[in-house]
Please model this.
Amino acid sequence: LIFSIINIDFHGIFNDIAPAFPLEQKICVLMKNYLYFMRLSVAILIAILLNLEGNCQTLLNENFNYVSGTCLTANGWKAHDDADSNSVKVSSTGLVFQGYPSSNIGLSALLANKGEDVNKTFTTVSSGTVFCAFLVQVNAIATDYFLHLAATTVVSHRGRVFIKGTGNSFIFGLSKGSGTPVYTTGSPFTKGVTYLIVLKYSIVEGVKNDVVSLYVITGLIPGTEPSIPTIGPLADALETDLAKVSAVALRQYSPNQNILVDGIRVASKWEDAVSALTGNEEPSRTDNPVLYPVPVSEELIVSNARNVTMIEIFDFTGRKVISVKTKATDNIKIPVNQLSPGLYILRLNTSGGIKIIKFIKS
Model:
């Protein structure tokens, strides 16, 4: 396909080689050209893939594509409070919400104790708005906040998202900082049900005047930002602003809490946070393979791979470094510890065609 796009005529190249050259030399020249254009083609393909991902203005896409039971700190997250004390771990299940791009991809984070709090950074935002969308399922209720935004140092906790309730019902709450939260009104929410939450942080020029809002979505996802949030907009003149918004944090505060968080998507626009796909994502993992962990150091796992018949891995020059024939299985494990660090292309031959996914070997 790429050859046809850049209009490479290998027959013409062969004929243009000096007629006096022996056949063996013509073939040698042709093979050198072929290898050169193969490498060029892979480079073009990688550039296209990178450009596709870059066109989506999501700042963070966290689908918890990690091994169940592992610590988040072993998968790109950092502890900022009580490190290694009741570590936040990957749950055995993922969350599903109809129409959300990060629905049912990978697993989820489990907040079910008092101890370690963790954060993951994203590209710093110093003006405008930050939308942090995520899926949440509350399975045991203990009143306090479980998620917030922060700067890289995670000193100030801003845009705190709370739960509060008893029995099987609860409500969501929001505060800009340490002030008293404002809670949702009307019908309460139900334990064991997955909800889509969008936390909005608006950076306003001046001092102590940034604003936070919260949207709780239970049905159809709005294509544009609703004019009236579920909670807010909230300001707090007693609380300092975040000069730079660059991290999302998960908080454990009680052994009585049990909260699953999944599909965290951070963006500067509503549309990118709740409805735009990145280059690597699909709306559902029903027939789409998923890679984890990413980046990978020792063993790459391809999950949901029942329709995959062969896996090939190419390095940046276009050289095939691994080829694996597969059988119908949910998980395929590929040792990659022998590969040099860098960017690689995974080509999956499936019953529905060829799928290409890029990954990084650390």
About this structure: The two ends are 30 Å apart (CA to CA). Confidence is low (pLDDT under 50) at residues 1-8, 46-56, 276-286.
